[in-house]
Amino acid sequence: MTRATLLGSARPLAEAYDLALVDLDGVAYRGHDPIDHAATGLAEARARGMRLVFVTNNASREPSSVSDQLTELDIPATPQDVMTAAQAAAIVLRERLDEGAKVMVVGGAGLRTAVREAGLVVCDSADDAPDAVVQGFAPELGWKDLAEAAYAVGNGAWYVASNLDLSLPTARGYAPGNGSLVGAVVNATGVRPDSAGKPSPRMYEIAVARSGALAPLVVGDRLDTDLAGARAGQIPGLHVLTGVSTARDDVLAAPGMRPDFIAEDLRGLLAAHPAPARAEGDWWVCEGAAARVVGGALELDERAGSTLDLVRSACAAAWDAVDAGHELDPTTVPEFAIGSH
Question: Which GO terms describe its molecular function (predicted)?
Fold first, then answer.
């Protein structure tokens, strides 16, 4: 059952959880640019005993390329610290296909390597009669690639996508993601792919099993992928407000996408997180900030407490009202002045 309020932690999250499953784009970096406080936040989390695995829906790059970029941004990492959607997709493929099966790869070098390392044969044309088509994002993909995928899928090949993210954060803004490119093949064939990436919890489960962690924590910027995957895998999730989803999105989140903790950025790993509590008059209070829903309208009392505490209170009030079957007018939920938006 979905919790109707946020979790609380009297201890910093880096001390309460032994593994952070950290998203990359929008969390550790944005395109090729660093995100403020990411390197220092993660370094201090490690110093407090928290292990890090970087879990990304980006299937275009090799794990070594990802770890090199992280290291260049003062976040030391090795390829073993990275779990990509390409690796997860290859595992999904091997669950059904025998070694040596032919797989048409529509994507970048990272996906091709992962498929080969899984003991499958990479091919590039529908004329090769592939057993499966696996599609992941790569900036060089074009119409011919998508058309070839459509021909193979239309001929009966099993269709697998590394992930279904509609957008991709870059230094210049948000660009079409793999889900948008997959949509072209879906529109042409009517076939919807199985997906290995978030919001499926599969990557999280693989990373946790490999690390032997007992108390993992998902850290992400997108409610529809990172936090939905955390919910699906029953792993607590921290939403950092440095990427796609906003604090307002938290308040309006559907039950399956709600975070357990909210922070402005990765410094949230180093802090305790107060839990909202119900008070008189249907108010929900967090460190002096308060919110309630009356007649479908969200009311806020921000005379005390931080903006982040106000967001926490608003989430608790909104979720409690919606879960009880009451209406919430989204026009009464403001854009909170917090995060990178």
Answer: phosphatase activity
Q: Are residues 119 and 151 in the same domain?
A: yes
Q: Which listed residue (23, 165, 249, 250) is catalytic?
A: 23
Nearest to 320 by CA among 300, 291, 340: 291
- d(CA 338, CA 341) in angstroms, rounded, equals 7
Q: In the annotation, is 23 catalytic?
A: yes
Q: Which domain holds residue 304?
A: 277-331
* Distances, alpha carbon 47 to alpha carbons 37, 74, 251, in Å: 15, 14, 32
Contact 25, 169 (CB under 8 A): yes
pTM (two decimals): 0.88
Tell me whether strands 33-34 and 51-56 are parallel, antiparallel or unpaired: unpaired
Selected catalytic residue, list 25, 145, 260, 320: 25
Same domain, 263 and 282: no
Angle between helices 85-96 and 109-117 (to 10 degrees): 40
**Residue 17 contacts residue 46 (beta carbons within 8 Å):** no
For residue 263, what is the enclosing H or E element?
strand 261-263
Residue 49: other Cβ atoms inside 10 A: 10
Same-domain check for residues 131 and 162: yes
CA terminus-to-terminus distance, the chain: 31
Tally the domains of the chain.
3
Which one of 238, 270, 302 terminates a domain? Answer: 270
pLDDT digits (tens, 9 = 90+) for 117-167: 999 999 999 999 999 999 999 999 999 999 999 999 999 999 999 999 888
> How large is the average pLDDT for residues 316-330?
96
- Residues 251 and 314 sit within 8 Å (Cβ to Cβ): yes
Q: What whole-number distance in Å separates Cα of residue 36 and Cα of residue 268?
A: 12
Query: pLDDT, tens digit, for every residue of 160-214?
Result: 999 998 888 777 888 899 999 999 999 999 999 999 899 999 999 989 998 999 9
Residues for the chain: how many in total? 341
Q: Yes or no: say if 341 and 311 are a contact pair by the CB < 8 Å rule.
A: no
CB atoms within 10 A of CB 157: 22
User: Is 36 marked active-site?
Assistant: no
> What SS3 class is residue 99?
coil
Q: Same structural domain for residues 266 and 183?
A: no
